[in-house]
Amino acid sequence: SPQETRKSSPTGSVTSSVSTTALTPSRQLTDAEKLRKVVMELVDTERTYVKHLNNLLEHYLEPMKRETFLSNAEINALFGNIHEIVTFQRQFLQNLEESLDLEPEFNKFEHCGQFRNVLFAIGSAFLYYVNHFKLYSSFCASHSKAQKVLHPNEGNHALQEFLAARNPKQQHSSTLESYLIKPIQRILKYPLLLQQMRNLTDTRADEHVHLCEALKGMEKVAEHINEMQRIHEEYGAIFDHLFRQHQKSCKQPIDLSPGDLLYYGGVEWLNISDFLGKIKKGLELHAMCFVFKSAVVFLCKERLRQKKKLMGVSSKNATNEVEIIRYQVLIPVTEVQVRASSAKDMDSHFLWELIHLRSQLQRRSEKVYVLSNSTADFRNAFLKTIRQIIRESVRNMSIPMKNFGGSSGSVSGHSSQGMSGHGHGYAGNSQTLERPKQQITIVHGSHTLGKPKKKKSVYSSIDPPAAAAATAATTAAAAAADPSASTSPSTPTSQGATTAADQAAALASPQ
Prior knowledge:
Shape: globular
Radius of gyration: 27 Å
CATH architecture of the largest domain: Roll
Order of helices and strands: EEHHHHHHHHHEHEEEEHEEHEEEHH
Distance between the termini: 80 Å
Helix content: 40-55%
Oligomer: single chain
Structural class: alpha+beta
CATH superfamily of the largest domain: Pleckstrin-homology domain (PH domain)/Phosphotyrosine-binding domain (PTB)
Number of helices: 14
């Protein structure tokens, strides 16, 4: 059989290449040779991909920042969160290369079963980083924006001159457009490679099951990215408008990019008449709620069915749907509360309340949106996710405290990680890229990864007074998440606080 030689790459990692011994046309590759070929295709193309990402940064992004022909907003539209993707992919490449290093005799394997450790390591890398791949949702969703910047209605001659200078040989593979499409192509390639590896393993083998799990995870990532693109196409313009309006009136940072969308879905807006007045019968109104890491967006749209007129004659069958946004609001996480209705109402109608807290500074009274979902699961998912972002917001505000002196429609929900049935859930990207060494445990054919060590509490390094304030702030967050929840009699409260941020600040202030 043909032998592969291994050599060191410039970075010191191990690479491989097929020796000059050629296969005769009549000879077919063995399954072991096919498997080795797929594994090396994954690793080699990953190296090439990371190289292309580095070229994108060095030859286009960084030089473009020094020019003036594009605004910061246009540069962001072009490159999105590419820096995060590059940082992640460098780490992922390292993990793939380490998978090969597990077996010094990798190129001599003659049976598929010998690849067991390598395949386990590759599958583990995909499973461990599966949520990190959701970074691509923002990049892919904003690709249409990048095209508008590259091809404006009125030509940007300075931009075109810059792009030509960056690619003097005018090679298509080195154009900015070619580099920008590579992340989209790559994220779609992973499931195909995993599928090929899975198909070349014994269905009874443990590594086959492990690769199946990795493949399912990456297929869910692809579904998530497609769904985020759909959301961006349908609601992106609304999110952009709300973001601009928020930036004009408030300096508090928010992010409405697809990567920060945690949960969304249709809801029934029960007290709509309190906001829009009397609603005519027959109107098609659809309310939607989107929960981002830093804000909640609530909107209501009306669907109109207009008859098309052909040559001045109205056709009964030809209709054109038009959607009008009747109501839209952005509620920053520091100004939001949720409240579950009474047990009786909750069980029968799955009711809950979304509350936009009053603000003395903005002269805004409290607004309560009474909402309903079709199932308890969807209702509870909204409550849980919004409470989660409130707690996280207060926790983030607590860290520096040591500086102180002392209508009806679709009512299903979608989480951007995989709720069974109707939604796609997303718990957010882990911030830890370094993959800890893990022991793969096999129990009756199932595979579990050794759990990473539990993170140290964010309050462990805070001095005692500040730690007490931080704890109180967290309690305030819980109260903000659900005012109906009971609180400890010993917990200090601030009568003047109206938002979670106000409560945290009041609790942290020295008495």
